[in-house]
Design the sequence.
């Protein structure tokens, strides 16, 4: 049996990254996180001011009030802006369990930060994707903790078939998860 000799390049590839190597993409990840978190919170504040009806939260709403709800048509027959609040998770799952959802969001956010740390430093796409997911998770966490529900306002639909109303944070989570899935399928992570 002959033993293969390792070159200095092989040694470098197998040694774990140093903390400074792990932090090399940190400014970009932080920038993505802050940009999308601020964009999410500002668009939600706008939705509350521009789309939320005065009667929101009252126990009885007439059909006329519901039909007169403020809607901004973006692409007729496909995309509009309409105010909604979601006290649950995606698709209103776990409706009314705000405390549980808040705790799960905190744990998931911590897990994402740990995952980011252990991603290979050269895997910039995955690190950016984790920053997107984290910005979305924290954006919705801020809503749950502060309002008791997540503000949604983007309504995609075809004819009478509507996708559940969503927000910028939800979009960040979906796009980030899609990027991670692609990188995983490609064998990069």
Sequence:
């Amino acid at each position: 049996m002959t033993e293969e000799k390792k070159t200095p390049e092989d040694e470098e590839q197998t040694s774990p990254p140093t903390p400074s190597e792990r932090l090399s993409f940190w400014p970009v990840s932080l920038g993505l996180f802050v940009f999308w978190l601020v964009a999410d919170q500002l668009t939600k504040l706008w939705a509350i001011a521009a789309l939320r009806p005065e009667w929101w939260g009252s126990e009885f709403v007439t059909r006329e009030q519901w039909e007169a709800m403020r809607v901004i048509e973006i692409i007729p027959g496909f995309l509009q802006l309409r105010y909604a609040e979601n006290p649950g998770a995606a698709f209103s799952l776990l409706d009314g369990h705000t405390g549980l959802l808040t705790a799960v969001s905190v744990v998931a956010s911590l897990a994402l930060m740990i995952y980011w740390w252990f991603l290979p430093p050269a895997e910039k796409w995955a690190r950016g994707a984790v920053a997107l997911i984290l910005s979305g998770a924290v954006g919705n966490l801020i809503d749950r903790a502060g309002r008791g529900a997540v503000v949604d306002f983007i309504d995609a639909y075809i004819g009478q078939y509507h996708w559940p109303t969503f927000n910028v944070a939800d979009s960040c989570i979906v796009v980030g998860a899609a990027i991670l899935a692609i990188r995983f399928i490609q064998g990069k992570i």
Summary: The helical segments are 8-14, 19-22, 26-51, 63-67, 98-118, 124-147, 168-185.
